[in-house]
Amino acid sequence: MTAVAVVSGGMDSVAMLYRLNAKMSDHRDDSKLHVVSFDYGQRHYKELNFAENHAQELGAEHHVIDLMGLGTIFAKAGSQSSLVNTDVAVPDGHYAEESMKATVVPNRNMIMASIAAGIAVAAGASVLGLGVHAGDHFIYPDCRPEFIGLFERTVKSGNEGFAAEDFHVYVPWMHKSKTDIVRETYKQFGDTFARDLFTETWSCYKGGVLHCGTCGTCTERKEAFKDAGVDDPTEYAA
Ligand SMILES: [Zn+2]
Question: Which of 175, 181, 167, 166 is closest to 143 using CA atoms?
Answer without folding.
Answer: 175
